[in-house]
Amino acid sequence: xxxxxxxxxxxxxxxxxxxxxxxxxxxxxxxxxxxxxxxxxxxxxxxxxxxxxxxxxxxxxxxxxxxxxxxxxxxxxxxxxxxxxxxxxxxxxxxxxxxxxxxxxxxxxxxxxxxxxxxxxxxxxxxxxxxxxxxxxxxxxxxxxxxxxxxxxxxxxxxxxxxxxxxxxxxxxxxxxxxxxxxxxxxxxxxxxxxxxxxxxxxxxxxxxxxxxxxxxxxxxxxxxxxxxxxxxxxxxxxxxxxxxxxxxxxxxxxxxxxxxxxxxxxxxxxxxxxxxxxxxxxxxxxxxxxxxxxxxxxxxxxxxxxxxxxxxxxxxxxxxxxxxxxxxxxxxxxxxxxxxxxxxxxxxxxxxxxxxxxxxxxxxxxxxx
Length: 370
Hints:
Order of helices and strands: EEEHEHEHEEEHHEHHEEEEEEEEE
Helix content: 10-25%
Structural class: alpha/beta
Radius of gyration: 19 Å
Largest sheet: 8 strands, mixed
CATH topology: Purple Acid Phosphatase, chain A, domain 2
CATH class: Alpha Beta
Strand content: 15-25%
Number of domains: 1
CATH architecture: 4-Layer Sandwich
CATH superfamily: Metallo-dependent phosphatases
Distance between the termini: 19 Å
């Protein structure tokens, strides 16, 4: 049974902490035709790069969920190293360079050991393993903090181009258990779904070291390759949000770039972090946007029913937690869970339809966390 923390009436505006905004307080029962196991099961979480009580609790819950019903892989939605990304003062860090494709690291480069990766990624996620003991792949994208876009790093807000290039390069170059980032952008393919991971700093920052036009060209080509499969965009930044970064997404330049990305081809949903909360919206274009950025650094939040003109917020929460995406023969679903693995919100998409709120399946999410 879904745990709805919002009052029965529809909320218009509210400041909440570890509470939930729900646009549809009485969802119908799930009707998705399910197989004994989904064709693809994906862990979706973001803004994870800060060690503390919240990260520890969420990481434990994700590992328990994986043991109960294994994931095929994970998607880490950026802001992997708070507050400023990789350390540039380490010997050899400034030697990192990109290949001519501006995406992959020059072959042969070995990055210095940056202890941040062990502290806030590898150690917390060490229990995410496959049945054979190998690490569960976590496919990772760049966030704004990874490239140095933080007031704690540069109070002027102007990040030197060389700095952002180096920081991005060092994250792509990093190697270690679970961590998978072969480039600033890449695709993850399964027989039934394609995940298009891209560097959304090009969407948000005019002074970023890399070109939005080149990123858009990659997204167009990658989306065209989805064919009949489910097609998901994956990035740190979102197209619409009802959270703290809403003013950023409503600027004319941001909206124009987001429009061009969403018109790259048919997509089922856009998966993102950036706001430190959990959200589900439907855009004016009719596709779903999910924010799963509550893994390590929740903040007070303001939610409202209209993330952007023509868009609608279906769900928003500041609970600690993560998301689970499942693809079935007849559709796909998204579940938000808190740090105790209790379901907060579930939705299901049938055929080419949108992900509609449903009551979370009984017994599908056994509670074993403390």
